Amino acid sequence: MIVFEHVGFAYPGAAAPALDDVSVSVSPGQVLALLGPNGSGKSTLARLGNGLLVPSAGVVRVDGMDTADEDTVWDVRSRVGFIQQNPENQIVGTLAEEDVAFGPENLGVPSDELRVRVDDALAAVGLSGFQRREPHLLSEGQKQRLAIAGALAMRPSYLIADEPTAMLDPVGRRDVLGALRDLRRRGVGILHVTHHLADVVDADEVVVLRNGRIAYQGTPKALMADPGHARTLAVEVPPEAELADALRRGGVPVPAGASTPEAIAESVWHS
Amino acid sequence: MRVPTTFGQYVPVDSPVHSLDPRAKMGVIVAFTLGLFLVDGLAGMSVFAAAVGVVLLVSRVPPRIAFRGLRALGLILVFTLLAHALRWEPATVSLVRVGPVGVDADGLLRGVFFAVRIVLLVVGTSLLTLTTTPVQLTDALETLMRPLGRIGFPAGEVAMMLTIALRFIPTTAQEAEKIIVAQTARGARFDEGGLVARVRAYVPVLVPLFVNLFRRAEDLAVAMDARCYRGGRGRTRLHISVMRARDWAVLLLSWAGFVTVGILV
Questions:
Q1: Looking at this predicted complex, what is its ipTM?
Q2: I need a surface site. Which of A201, B157, B195, B256 has the fewest CB within 10 A?
Q3: pLDDT tens digits, B13-35
Q4: Domain layout of chain A by residue ranges
């Protein structure tokens, strides 16, 4: 489990802390969605999760290891994969397979096992057959899936994804979200930073940050059931949730569980 | 501006030369160069010319491309030829004579000899880059530099730097193209005025390009950190190239051949 305990963080020279007394956790196989406007501390929290940053208050533990402990930080990073917003800038290798191999190469994995890990990771994100492809010839969505494969090849227990769909077109976004769902099914715990509640409707928990503090902590369903509250948190709810809310206000009893257009139509039919 | 899928000089065809281990090819180039400088006669030189011709044929690299590197050398070749051929008040019998300047037969032969040496050197060595991808070259350099690691030379790090540079050349080219389009849309002209004006027109392209490169570098550093990059120490590699019997045979035979011809002829 990745546990953030009363975590605070201040960038040097900054007037206000980027994070203040934040406590959240990510378990294997679970998705923690992290939302909030720009500058709310989302990315800072993401970087605290694998020891890229070290908290100035509180403690972050990964499977019991303090990320501030320099003796175990590489063990922490091998357990916590990390992908960023810009797909292009995180690709190191000149060929897709070389990029996927980069992480496990750094861990000293022997070369025959590297081959297995690389092919498995590429298959897991739907990029089988792209081994010899040059990264700059891939679409942005494919590049982002390649980045996920690169993290996956390290056989991590967790993945931190910092706005992985922010720069993608709808197809790329759909494929990346699909790859993340597959990872969760394999038991990987995911910290998913995003601006879109629609990306994380099936998350186990949603945390909305505001000015470095937790402004909301609950389930995505509960947040979508109250679009008015979501709006005050600067969170955009999916159009289906907006529709259900508008119907409810108009006197149509749409149940809280109705999140698809079909389910909403059903409740309108029965009212 | 179109961004090529493979940059540099690499000619993507299959041939026995292409499939040779890059380290063996580098070794052959060293023997070839050594032999080329040991040889002192047109007879020996013709053996080397024949060798280059055979390798060129086997490599299936179009000769037009192989000789492309010579264009830049035209002036040097002409100068070499003339410097050896022309004589001021020549003592020996001249072929042609204009006033005090004459063309000397021995000199002309010497000029041809040196010019041919330059041509063979350029064409011969360029066969390495024409048949080997930049990535293969970097990998080969890394394994060749590895012994230097014992005296503290960061072989793995240097190879990583080269790999990343190669990796980001197409990305940077694509980005430059985008910026040029953006600046053209804002009225910038890249095809007008003299040399100074044209160079100056690229300043608004280079500034955002470099700013973006620094941003990329930061992201990349984070990505490498997150994937446990700790320098070359303890790193394994996906591709381990092994010198096969054929690579050793070509390497050793070329050394024997080139050096023998170089010394004897």
A1: 0.88
A2: B195
A3: 889 999 999 999 999 999 999 99
A4: 2-237
Length of chain A: 271
Say whether pLDDT at B5 is over 70: no
* Chain A residues within an 8 Å CB radius of B215: 89
Q: Which architecture does CATH list for A2-237?
A: 3-Layer(aba) Sandwich (3.40)
Please enumerate in sequence order all residues whose Cβ is within 8 A of that of B111, keeping only pairs 6 or more positions apart, or say none: B80, B81, B82, B83, B84, B85
Residue B3: per-residue pLDDT: 42
Tally the C-alpha atoms within 13 A of residue B87's C-alpha that lie toward its C-beta.
17
Write the DSSP symbol of residue A167: T
**CB-CB neighbors (< 8 A) of A88 in chain B:** 171, 216
Query: Residue range A169-198: average pLDDT?
Result: 94
Amino acid at A32: L
CB-based contact (8 Å) between B227 and chain A?
Answer: yes
Contact assessment for residue A67 and residue A54, using Cβ atoms and an 8 Å cutoff = yes
Whether residue B236 and residue A97 make contact (CB cut-off 8 A), yes or no, is no
Strand partners, A218: A206
Q: Which two structure tokens, joined as six digits, stand for A193?
A: 């930073």
DSSP result, A6-57: EEEE--TT-SS-SEEEEEEEE-TT-EEEEE--TTSSHHHHHHHTTTSS--SE
Q: What percent of chain B has pLDDT over 90?
A: 41
Amino acid B70: pLDDT: 83
Evaluate whether A233 touches A215 at the Cβ level (below 8 Å): yes
pTM score of the predicted model: 0.81
Interface contact flag, A92 B226, Cβ < 8 Å: no
Residue B69 pLDDT exceeds 60: yes
Extract the tokens encoding A135.
């990264």
Chain A residues whose CB is inside 8 A of the B164 CB are: 92
Q: What is the largest CA-CA distance in chain B?
A: 76
Q: How far is B149 from A55, CA to CA, in rounded Å?
A: 36
Side chain identity at B68, as an amino acid letter? R
**Extents of the domains making up chain B:** 22-144+245-264, 170-226
Model confidence over B206-225: pLDDT tens digits? 999 999 999 999 999 999 99
| Ordered DSSP codes for A83-149 | E-S-SGGG---SSHHHHHHHHHHHTT--HHHHHHHHHHHHHHTT-TT-TT--GGGS-HHHHHHHHHH
Phi, psi of A206 (to 5 degrees): -120, 130
What one-letter code names the amino acid at A118?
A: V
